[in-house]
Amino acid sequence: MKPNTSAFVALALLELFATATVINISLCNGTSCIESEREALLKLQHDLRDPSNRLASWIGDNGDCCKWGGVFCSNFTGHVLELNLQNPFSPYDNEAYQRSKLVGKINPSLLELEHLVHLDLSGNDFQGIQIPKYLASLVNLRYLNLSIANFTGMIPHQLGNLSNLQYLDLSGYNFKLHADTISWLSGLSLLKHLYISSVNLSKASDSLLVINSLPSLKELKLSFCKLHHFPPLSSANFSSLTTLDLSENEFQGQIPSRLGNLTSLKYLDLSFNQFNSVVPGWLSKLNDLEFLSLQSNRLQGNISSLGLENLTSIQTLLLSGNDELGGKIPTSFGRFCKLKSFSTGFTNLSQDISEILGIFSACVANELESLDLGSCQIFGHMTNQLGRFKGLNFLDLSNTTMDGSIPLSLGQIANLEYLDLSKNELNGTVSEIHFVNLTKLVTFRANGNSLIFKINPNWVPPFQLTGLGVRSCRLGPRFPLWLQSQKKLNDLYISSTRISAKIPRRFWNSIFQYWFLNISGNQMYGGVPKFDSPSMPLVTNLGSIFDLSNNALSGSIFHLICQGENFSKNIEFFQLSKNHFSGEIPDCWMNWPRLRMLNLRNNNFTGSLPMSIGTLSSLMSLNLRNNRLSGIIPTSFNNFTILEALDMGENELVGNIPTWMGERFSRLIILNLRSNKFHGDFPIQLCRLASLQILDVAYNNLSGTIPRCINNFSAMATTDSSDQSNDIFYASLGDEKIVEDALLVMKGFLVEYKSILNLVRGIDISKNNFSGEVPVEVTNLQGLQSLNFSYNLFTGRIPDNIGVMRSIESLDFSANQLSGYIPQSMSNLSFLNYLNLSNNNLNGEIPSSTQLQSFGGSSFADNDLCGAPLPNCTKKSVLVTDDQNRIGNEEDGDETDWTLYISMALGFVVGFWCFIGPLLIKRRWRYKYCHFLDRLWDGCFVRKCY
Ligand SMILES: *[C@@H]1O[C@H](CO)[C@@H](O)[C@H](O)[C@H]1NC(C)=O
Ligand SMILES: *[C@@H]1O[C@H](CO)[C@@H](O)[C@H](O)[C@H]1NC(C)=O
Ligand SMILES: *[C@@H]1O[C@H](CO)[C@@H](O)[C@H](O)[C@H]1NC(C)=O
Ligand SMILES: *[C@@H]1O[C@H](CO)[C@@H](O)[C@H](O)[C@H]1NC(C)=O
Ligand SMILES: *[C@@H]1O[C@H](CO)[C@@H](O)[C@H](O)[C@H]1NC(C)=O
User: Fold this and answer.
1) Does the beta carbon of 235 lie inside 6 Å of ligand 4?
2) Peptide bond before 477: cis, by omega within 30 degrees of 0?
């Protein structure tokens, strides 16, 4: 990249010659560029890569550099006054933005432009260099913008020499820039605009006082600066401050009431902090406020006591994400005639929706563009007043308890682009009239309601959606052919919509356009046809998600797996489970490089496992359960080095359990090989699977002993699930959480675990030919809830200290040859609610505890045991077998037990889900999710983050 010297000299000579011409021209033409400055600009250009050719006009022999792009000169002196090299694209337009960056160094020749007044280098990539100290010599600068330009390190305090600065933007990202003090700002007494967002100022808080010495300041942005202490803004010095952004810091406690004296404020952003109360009333002094965001704090009390009622200039009022902020929207808000954006999502607002629409329908309805009342305690019916909100383009009323039907006047909100009515109790019918004028609608979600779509299947909608979600509404029974008019649709969520129809060929051809498709839980049938001419897939970096599970689809999946290379290369989650697909699993998995989850469970696939599955090195979950797959596990599977869940149960697989599983699957949480024809030993290498929580190899022909090293299953030795909880959640998309599910036989029943999987731990090796003793090391696995060793050939005793397995709920040693007493410690197992020790050679008295005596006699049958629940021990029966003491009413006992077990199993699932559920929706997580959506939707919509 460095110029070689001779070329450089030649270039310089050429320039000299050119300049002579220029000077001639400029004599008649007024002013033109100064020779030395042009040279400086060329040097600057030389050190920058310019992939998008933004500097195309910067050519050496094009004399007048004042006409170059981004360069502006004085008409009188010809000196360059302004250099404007900012990235012309917004980061939201990510691809264009990345492409348009100038990349490289800043050549110090910049200093030649000593008359520079305005310098903008924002949005470029200066490759992590420090902000050059020498910029401080450009003392004429009034405008300096170095934001988001990949500068790192300490902000040089020399910038304090730029005493003419009126505008300074040093905003960064990811805290790559930091400052230990900002006291040097005191030299910039003319400063009007100061932006230092995303700069780590955690060590500079003592110097924040300096801001008071900037009396001309109009705009101050200190968002994302890791500040703990609120800047000591003294109102006396800030009569002119109009914009204050202190969002995304770590402020706590009360919002300082002195803000109430900054009476010129028009823009105040305190969002994403930890403020936990407001001083009622002082906000009312800020009569000029146009923008107020208090989002995502911990504000308490009542919305009507925030003192907002006189803010009649307000245009944006964002209160969402304050869980403890309650009350109602007061009627005085009806006077906010300039309001464009209003949000109270994720607050405790509790109000009838018709009342809210009533308050806003007077003058607010005229201007309002964005209304977010989602995840509040909104109830009641929507009224036809909805149709008055003609300017609305964003409406979120999701996750409330509204009921009733959607008013027909919805169809009049002609500007509507985004509508979310998901997770309410809406019912009634939805027809074409509801959408009649919605020509701009892009996203429509009504997931989780009971709406009935009565729409002519051949309807031609006025809109072109990109996102549609109507889970659990009734769309069927016919296939909604109108979907096929939606050429831009890429996010379709129509699971459980009671469609029982053949999937039309055109729809199959269009599936290439989706990055999110969920049509599960219907009765759609038919086979996958050969695709005609696959449409171009959506260009996205995002992994896509396909869920066709739980339908009646049939036939071969060859075309789906093998034909659409462009389509399959982005897919991360692919579920075809619970259909009637058949034939062999095609061998084209090399076309699926991003696959993380593959679920083919409950189909009729036959044949052996294709080699190419082994190319899926990103796979985290593979579920092939309940097919008729045969053959051995291919060695290519040893590429699955980040696999967390493997379920190949209920097939006809043969061979040994591969020893490399223990070496390669170090992150495995679930290993399920149940009901196959595996034989041979339990490989000692499996003991390395320290993350394993579920091990099920039951119903095979395995033999030998259980190695003592099973106490290395350390995830089973703990009840702590905190560090695991994220692993089992693979992805979240709005309503949809992609979670691993697992089947485990607990207490004699097959239980499907989804959201609570991270809490479940169990071992089932029943129905094999394992022999030897039950290793005492099993008692180290104190997180286990279920342990099933039944129907093997175990001998010896039940480990004496079994009582330390405090989490055990289900314990089954039945149908072995165990002997000796039942250990006394078993009476300590207080969670135990299923026990089966029957059909062994145990003897002696059953230890007494409320738990053990609550089981039916069948739990202990076919042994030489006595004592409750079996008949009392006679002295003799303690010592010798007494066949006559065996119980006779086993069947009765069984029946009661079964109902008990059902309710217990349910209780476990429901109980834990209710408890865990709310915890899962963490604030941080919501926040990340919103940022994700931001990127996705190019910022078309108002940011919806809490
Ligand atoms: C001024 O300069 C431009 C080129 O920069 C040239 O096209 C134009 O003819 C000149 N005007 C006069 C009056 O010479
Ligand atoms: C300089 O000239 C340009 C073009 O004639 C004009 O647009 C601009 O306003 C002038 N600038 C000043 C400071 O006079
Ligand atoms: C910033 O510069 C560093 C060092 O050259 C580079 O690795 C990194 O990718 C750059 N970051 C951005 C966002 O351009
Ligand atoms: C705010 O202004 C009032 C009167 O205008 C004054 O009494 C009070 O001291 C000021 N508060 C602060 C913190 O400056
Ligand atoms: C709002 O304005 C009215 C009339 O000017 C006044 O009486 C009332 O006190 C103000 N409310 C607040 C909270 O300042």
Assistant:
1) yes
2) yes
For residues 329 and 358, give the distance between their C-alpha atoms in angstroms, rounded to a whole number. Answer: 11
CB neighbour class for 310 (10 Å; exposed up to 12, middle 13-18, buried from 19)? middle
Supply the residue whose CA is at minimum distance from atom 1 of ligand 5: 310
As given in the structure block, the two tokens for residue 589 are: 């998995």
Is 281 close to ligand 5, i.e. is its CB under 6 Å away? yes
Rounded to whole angstroms, the Cα distance separating 284 from 280 reads 9
- Residue 926 host element (H or E): helix 923-936
- CA nearest ligand 5 atom 10, residue: 310
Question: HSE on the CB side for 260, CA within 13 Å?
Answer: 16
141 Cα: distance to centroid of ligand 3 (angstroms)? 27
Using a 6 Å CB cutoff, which residues line ligand 3? 125, 127-128, 150
Average pLDDT by stretches of 10, the chain with 946 residues: 44 46 43 86 95 91 84 91 96 90 96 96 96 96 97 96 97 91 94 96 89 91 93 75 95 88 93 86 89 94 88 95 94 95 96 97 94 96 95 96 96 96 96 96 96 92 96 93 91 94 91 87 94 61 83 95 80 93 95 92 96 92 95 94 93 96 92 96 95 94 96 87 49 54 69 65 95 95 94 96 92 96 92 93 90 90 91 63 35 32 30 27 32 28 26
**Residue 833: both structure tokens together:** 């609610």
- Residues 869 and 822 sit within 8 Å (Cβ to Cβ): no
Rg (CA), the chain: 35
401-404 and 325-326: which strand pairing? Answer: unpaired
Alpha carbon of 72 to ligand 2 centroid (Å) = 9
The dihedral through the CA atoms of 582, 584, 588, 593 has a sign that is positive
Helix (H) or strand (E) holding 831: none
Ligand 2 centroid, distance to 17 Cα (angstroms): 28
Residue 174 CA, ligand 3 centroid: distance in Å: 12
Q: How far does residue 34's CA lie from ligand 1's centre (Å)?
A: 16
**Is 308 strand, coil or helix?**
coil
Amino acid identity, position 451: L
Q: Give the predicted TM-score (pTM) of the model.
A: 0.79
Does the C-beta of 310 come closer than 6 Å to ligand 5? yes
Q: What's the CA gap between 203 and 346, in Å, rounded?
A: 33
Structure tokens at 775: 């290793």
Q: What are the distances in angstroms from CA 1 to CA 123, 602, 674?
A: 22, 60, 62
What is the Cα 11 distance to its own chain's centre?
54
The ligand that comes nearest to the alpha carbon of residue 305 is: 5
Counting from 1 in the atom list of ligand 4, the atom nearest the Cα of 235 is 14
